[in-house]
Design brief:
alpha+beta
């Protein structure tokens, strides 16, 4: 009885991080695993949406906005936008909630795939896309917390949303498009 109590006091007197380190390691490992599983489920849902749009593209209304931008509408909103310039093509995919899901980019024969999820800002109540996976042309996936990953995710989502809102603006202010 005295030995158990003495051992407990010895553990308790050590800095808390030494005692908690094994517990934190376990929790972060389990949490990291569950986050990876969750991301894989999200990626599969995005792929299902991608294949769903492309397999039923004839059910969408197609609009050519300029020499290089084509949008596919359903229920009044674009679900797929293709920007095809010489040497590069970006395909942007949006869901029914008008959220960016996926960017497929081909530049000089090299493919990049950008997968997005969304968070709603507590301050503005706007839904903001954030990159959850980037598959580079060499099939590598940059670390989610790397500067390259974060910068590329922000840049690409900014480009996609600029194109998206530009198309919506053209529709609102031009009578030639009836959705």
């Amino acid at each position: 009885k005295f030995t158990i109590m003495k051992r407990f006091q010895t553990i308790w007197e050590k800095p808390i991080w030494i005692v908690m380190l094994p517990i934190y390691c376990f929790l972060f490992t389990v949490d990291g695993f569950s986050q990876e599983v969750d991301v894989n489920v999200q990626i599969q849902n995005i792929r299902d949406h991608f294949y769903g749009v492309n397999s039923s593209i004839d059910d969408y209304d197609e609009y050519q906005f300029d020499d290089y931008t084509t949008a596919y509408f359903k229920d009044g909103f674009p679900h797929k936008i293709i920007v095809d310039k010489t040497g590069s093509q970006q395909d942007y995919y949006f869901n029914a909630e008008q959220e960016l899901l996926f960017i497929f980019e081909v530049f000089k024969g090299s493919e990049n795939r950008y997968y997005y999820n969304h968070k709603t800002s507590d301050q503005t109540q706007f839904t903001v896309p954030y990159l959850i996976r980037w598959i580079k042309p060499d099939k590598t996936r940059p670390a989610i917390n790397s500067e390259e990953f974060i910068e590329s995710g922000l840049k690409k989502s900014g480009e996609a949303l600029t194109v998206y809102f530009s198309i919506l603006e053209q529709i609102l202010f031009e009578e030639s498009y009836e959705i």
